[in-house]
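Q: What would this chain look like folded?
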Amino acid sequence: MRLKIGSTYQKAVTIIEKLKEGNVSIFICGKSGTGKTTLSSNITRKLLEAGVRIVAIDHRHAVSFPVELEPYVHRQDVSQKPLKLHLFGASDNPADTAASFADTITSVIALSNAQEQLLRPLLKEVLRASPAPNEVLEYLHQEIKSSHSRSAPGLENALAPLFAQKLFEDGDIEFSPGITLLDLSSFSLSTQHIVEEVLFAALLREATCEDFPPTFLYLDELSNYTLRSSNALGRILCEGRKQGLYALLVAQSIRVFKPEQRILLQQCKYMMCFQPADEEVRMCASLLSTKDKAKLVSTLKGLQVGEFMVSGSVYVGDSDTPTTKPLVVHSKSPEDVVPANGPLAIPVPSDTEPILPPAQIDLLLPLDAFDDCDDEEAAPSKPETVTENACPLLPDSPSEHSIEPLHLRDESSAPQEQSQSPQMQLLRSAVFTSVPMNSYYGNYNCSWPPAQVQPATFSYPNMDFSSLIQQDDAQISFQALITP
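A: My prediction, written as C-alpha cells:
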C-alpha cells in the first residue's frame, strides 16, 4: 500500500507498507486549527483508494468527512440498529468465555473484587445452560437478581446499561465497504464505553480469521476513549497489526495521557505532530525521537499551519530508501503534490504559508542524499565558492529585474571625476547598483539552487577593492575575475 501524506521540497512523502505484514497504525496530534483534520481526511481518502475498510465511532455528532467522501460513509445509529457481533466469542469452553467477557466488562466498568468474583461463576453457569446468544444477557440478569450475595445489587446496577437496552445482536460482524460510522451519541458515557470495548474485543477476535479484510479503526478525540495495555484498544495497538487491524488515532493534546498511555501510543509506527501547545512541546518531541530533543523542540515550535513532523519510515520522491530521522512535511492535498517524477521547482514561499520555516531546514535530509530524486535533465555545473555570509539568488519571477551583464565603458565616453579614477567609478557603479540578493529565509543552505552569477572581467591590475565594501553590505555576494 502506498499512502501519500504530503510533500517536502515539493516532492511527495509516502508511506509504503504491506498490509497484514507491516505496522501502518498512525497517531496524529496537535493543537486545534493546525491541520489535523485535513491530514486525516487525506489519509482516509488514500485508504479507501487502497481498498481498506474503515470503522469510525461518533460520540456526539462530531465526526465528519469531506463532501467527496460522503457517498462512501455508511452511518449506523446503534440505538436504532444493534451491532451484529459475537458478544461472547466462539469458544466452546464456558469458563473461557465467561472469563473473556468479564475481562472486557471490567476494563470499562469499575467492579469490586466481590462483584467480579460473583459475575464470573454466574455467567459460566448461564453459558453452560446453552441459551440462545441473544438471551444470555437476559438469563444473566435473572441470575443476578435471584442471587443472595451482598454484591448482587451493586453488580446489577453496574451492568444496568447492558440490561436496559438491546445493544448487540448475535452474528458475524457486518461492516460495509468504505467507511462505517457508528453513532453512539444517544447513549450515556458509560454505555458508550461498554459498546466500544465490546466492539474492539470483537474486532480482535474477528481479525484472527484468515479472510479478515485489512481494517482501520478511526478514532477522533482519542482522549474520550479508555486506553490501557489490558483493554481491547491497547491490545489492538500491540497485536492488531499482525492480523491486519490498524488504528488511525487523532488527539488535540497528549498532556491528558498518562506516561504508560504515551508508551502505548508509541506502538503506532507513524507519529505525526502538528504544532503543539507550548506546555506539550517536549512531550511531542519525546514521542518523535529520543535523539536531538533540543532541535526537535525548536522545530516543533516553528511549525506553521499545515506543517507537521513525522517519524517513521517514509519515502521522499522516487527514493527507494526510507528516511531515518523525523521529517518536516507539508500536508498538502494529494492533487496539489508534485508527482515524484516531476521537475523540482521550489517557489518563493508566501508570508502566510512557507514551504519550510528557517528552523527546520537543517533537520531535513539534503536533496543530495536522495540520489534517485535528482532532476536527470539538470545540466551538471561546477560548485561555486560561497562565502560564509553569502545568500543565494531568488529564482527569476515577473516581479524581479533581471541582472544585466556588466560591460566595460570606454574611458572617453564617460566624464571623469576629480576624486576617483574612471576605473573606480565603473567598479563602484557595478557593485552598488546590482539587484540585492535575498535568500528564501535569510540564511544559506546547500540544498537550495546555486546562484546564477555571471562573472565580469576587469583589466585593472593591483587594485584594492576593500574600500568599496561598506559596513551595511556584509551580505552582498560579490564575484569578480581579475586578470592582470
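The CA atoms of residues 123 and 140 lie 6 Å apart.
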